[in-house]
Structure formats: structure tokens, C-alpha cells
Amino acid sequence: MYNFDVVRPTSVDEALSALSQEDAQALGGGQTLIPTLKQRLAMPTTLVSLSGIDSMKGVSVDGGVITVGGATPHAVVAGEVADAFPALAHLAGNIGDPAVRNRGTIGGSLANNDPSACYPSAALATGATIVTNAREIAADDYFQGMFTTALDEGEIITSVKLPVPEKAAYIKFEQPASRFSLVGIFLAKYADGVRVAVTGASNNGVFRWAEAEAALSADFSVAAVEGLSAPSGDDMISDLHGSGDYRAHLVKALTKKAVAQAS
To answer: What residues have CB less than 8 Å from 221, skipping those under 6 apart?
Structure first.
């Protein structure tokens, strides 16, 4: 590690002021950033901790929409939405281990946009709105590739709005050491159609499987997925944990499981 300053603002305005300084970096739960600093892959001179901003914490349900503050830990989400949105509670309750779930935040996860993270699939599958200090961004416009988002420099995710679906499920085939998704499927059925988001599989990060969405919107059944070809493995991640073709196979297999669970 190396020497750096830590600032702990208590309001969004204070945080934005601190982030305007040269070489300042926002710190959510630190579950990705701190290991990155230890490896010297990033070397900010000032960390701006968002954990002291109470206005960015908490969960509320109103009019069929769940709003989660950007600084809300995964464990809190898992407990607060268990009745209103069980699939989201299941996702949040199975991220990492207890230490990660009690420190990591939804805002940090979405801002980092790790290609194997769980929350991006929930945001994309529900058509969530990512609310920042400056604007609101639709999930379909927010995710722009591996570790890449629509956030501008110094922009902070203050909350996330997730419409509650009629039916939903999250199925994760996890890498056992890290508990990241080797492949994860978040499926959400709404009155106007079905959305299927895939995480952990693609070199381009989280994505929607359009063919499955079309088939399931017409016929919400396992049989509808059975008749589809698995996505191409060419653009899938291929590493020591699994080839691109294997991940492509898992996309279809886990989507079938998600349909069965949601039904």
C-alpha cells in the first residue's frame, strides 16, 4: 500500500467538492478499489468515502418501484426487499461472503461494472434507472462495456430505481473461490414483455439476450428456451475457469432454470 488521504463527507455536495480535487477517487465499500490500490493498479492521492452520506443509504418501495440508495450495503438490500422482490434479495444475499455483503454497496458495484458482478444483471433485466447527482440514466444506456459506464468523471450514483416485475429469478453459476458469476442470469417478466440479462459471460460485459426475450415474451415456458440456439461462444470470456463455448452453453442452461424458478 502507499500513503493517501481519506475524506469522509456527510453530504453529496461535500463529496462532489472533494472529488473535484486532483487525483481524488470515490470510495464506496472498497471491495474492488482497495485490492486495486494494493496492486498499484490505481494510485489516487485522496479517497472520498461515501459511507458517511446518510441520504445515499436505505431502501424504499413505492408504486411498484424499489429505490436503493447508492451507499446501501448488499446485506441491507437482501434484508429489506425479501418480501417485495425476492429475486433481488436472493442476488444481494449471495454476493461474496458476509464481510463483502456488509461492506460492498450497490452504487460501487454498478460504478465499477465488473463483467462478472451480480448487480449489473439486475439493473439491466429490470430496466432500472441509475440516479446520479446530475441526472437519471436508463440501464440500457448505462452499461457500455467491460468496466465501462455512462458515468462522467466525478459523477456519483446516489440511488437506483428498480421496477418490480410480475415474476423474476436470478440464477448464478459461481466461481467457488471468489463467488463471482462464471455466468449469471437475471430474468424479469413484466406486463409488456420479458427481459433477460446475462453477466459473467461476455467480453463486452453484461448484456441482454434478445432471442430469449422474444421467445419468452411470446411463451413464458422452459420449452420456449429449449428451442433456441445458445449464444455464440466467440465473444464470450475464455479463461482457466471455462471456455467461451462452455459459458455460452451455461447461458441457455441457466436461462431455462431461471424460467422454471420464476414460474
So the answer is: 259, 263
DSSP-assigned beta bridge partners for residue 183 = 173
Is the per-residue pLDDT at 3 higher than 90?
no
pLDDT at 129 over 80: yes
Q: Inform me whether the pLDDT recorded for 226 exceeds 90.
A: yes
Query: pLDDT at residue 1 above 80?
Result: no
Quick check: 198 and 121 in contact, CB under 8 A? yes
pLDDT in tens, 145-177: 999 999 999 999 999 999 999 999 999 999 888
- Chain mean pLDDT for the chain: 94
* Alpha carbon distance, N-terminus to C-terminus of the chain: 49
C-alpha cell at 158: 446516489
DSSP conformational letter for 30? -
Mean pLDDT value across residues 41-58: 91
With contact defined as beta carbons under 8 Å apart, do 51 and 108 qualify?
no
Cβ atoms of 101 and 90 closer than 8 Å: no
Q: What angle do CA 261, 190, 222 make, to 5 degrees?
A: 35
Whole-number Å distance between alpha carbons of 220 and 201: 23
Residues in the chain: 263
Q: Residue 98 has which C-alpha cell?
A: 458476509
Please give the domain boundaries of the chain with CATH numbers for all domains.
5-49 (3.30.43.10), 54-163 (3.30.465.10), 167-262 (3.30.390.50)
Q: What is the enclosing helix (H) or strand (E) of 220?
A: none
Residue 61 half-sphere exposure toward CB, CA atoms < 13 A:
10
Assigned C-alpha cell, 11: 453530504
DSSP, collapsed to helix, strand or coil, labels residue 66 as strand
